[in-house]
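Bumping with the actual sequence this time:
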Amino acid sequence: MAQAVSRRQLLQLGAVVVVGWGAAKVFQRAAPIGRDVGTNLTAQRLLQDRLSPRTEVRGADLTMVVFTDYQCAACKVAAPAMAAAVADDGRVRLIYREWPIFGPRSERAARVALASAAQGVYPQVHRRLMAERRQLDDAVLQAVVEASGGDWARLLADLDRLAQPIDQLIARTSQDAFALSLPGTPAFVIGTILVVGGMDEDGFARAFAEARARPR
């Protein structure tokens, strides 16, 4: 017959769990973030990318390349943490690489986002798509574009007009992801560090600090 667990034993067990969780967090913070890609030619080229959408900030001294998919749950969780860390840091420029790997709706959303750059609203569209929880059909995409200050009719025209460069950009992103051996999204090239998977705000801040501390 199983014995009842006393209140004292429960408290002791709780203390062990808390200590274990704390130790795990300390170990996580002490462990290196990501892997070094300082000598990787693909990573070096990504940091110089002038064709993909980007956000510039005055005095930026660090570049982060972001591989995302708008139907990727981990990307959606990481997005607000990344945005908060970037805003708090104030010196990180972003380069966005659309890597639609979750099917036709992902590809359509990526194309719409890239086409929105012609109207200067890509950052707003990207942010809203990352926060979107509805199925990404054209009605939702139109609502996102218009809420971001874009014109849907013009965007549809830009999708046709820019079809070839958008195709090339998505294809090149897939090639670069393969060259970096990325298993999926999200992934981040932060200076000379490659991080695969999402991070919380503290994780991004640590990655920024580590990237700045490494030789460039």
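The tokens above came from a reply further down the thread. Residues 8 and 31 are 34 Å apart (CA to CA).
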